[in-house]
Description:
Layout: E1 14-17, H1 21-34, H2 43-51, H3 54-70, H4 72-78, H5 90-98, H6 102-120, H7 134-142, H8 147-157, H9 160-199, H10 206-214, E2 230-236, E3 243-246, E4 254-260, E5 272-274, E6 277-279, H11 294-300, H12 303-311, E7 317-318, H13 319-326, H14 330-342, E8 346-351, E9 354-359, H15 361-373
Parallel strand pairs: 1-2, 2-4, 3-5
Antiparallel strand pairs: 3-4, 5-6, 7-9, 8-9
Helix pairs in contact: 1-2, 1-9, 3-6, 3-8, 3-9, 5-9, 6-7, 6-9, 7-8, 11-14, 13-14
Amino acid sequence: MLDIHLIQEKPALKVEFLPSLAADIFSTLSLVLDAPSLEGLDQWVYATHAALPLTLKADLEVTLVLLTKSCLYPAWLSRLPAEHPAHSDFAALLAWLNALTEADFQQVVTRALAEMDEVCEGGETSLPPDLADDDALRLCLGGKFADEQLERAAHLVCAPLELKALFISVLTRFWEQFYQAEYELCAPLAARSVEHHRRQTYAADLMTVFTAVTGRRFPKDYTEHEDKERVVFLPSCHIGPFVMLSMCEEMANVLFIHYNCRPTGVPDRAPVVTAYSITAPEPASETPSVQGLFPPLKALADETRLQILALLDGKELYAQEIVEQLDISQSAVSRHLHLMLAGDILDVRKQDGMKYFSINTETLAALAVHLLQFRH
């Protein structure tokens, strides 16, 4: 038998720029919900968060947690053709969502519970709890939902069609009460940004294109980009200094990148939201901007978060260990960890299905140096 080695060249990276209402409204809802823990977003986001009616806010919390935990919404978008009217017309977006099946939303529930179960079991990956086992289900959901939302969340995961109906209702109310007028103002800006980038000639590698579009380097600890063959840049008027990377297993070789399309400067060092979790990219320059001081300083300005920092001094812990040592609720610890990751104060790594947190000493050292510069 001949000794022949066949090597197949990797397909060239396909880079697209797409203004998409279907993508933008979901990412904007996520930003509005998380506004208190994120610094530097467009002011419309904070004003909208403050103005949300309590019923809409409660509905938004329960639906968005399940959908973002499953990471399936970006997967649905990845199968939506660029010419589909859902990218520009709200009625078409609702029609597209209405065409999704009970099985689609059952998959949302299954994936979300699997992700939550990994956390509530102290990091051990396991199968989703038996939906008939009320105690196991509530234990799993308890880490992500406050007591007043727990019963409702438990009901919705057992009724995927009701989850679908509630999600469509949330989108409709958000659109009619807040986003329609804002979208009409922002759509021309997003279209101009897309048109500008489509006219450019970018190098055929993701990290170079990412820097050219966002003005910062690709996050060094994110390696899932290596097998991507298609990257879709989605303009956002509200994301401020953040970049959102959206992906999941079902998206195969596709990566969505939400970037700031407003023609204003952004800090050289800014967080990246990866699949709705936050990590930090490499700085594009050695000296952080003054605006870049906000996230780490905000992350430090809390007694509980300083206690977490003390617990992690010289070691790493997973979330449940931090919960046990602080004696506060898991949901509270999760919120604090989320904000500390947003401020680049902490690093997180995954091993054997567990997430280990440690102090990002580079950020603290850079912060100390920059603060000392104010003396001169």
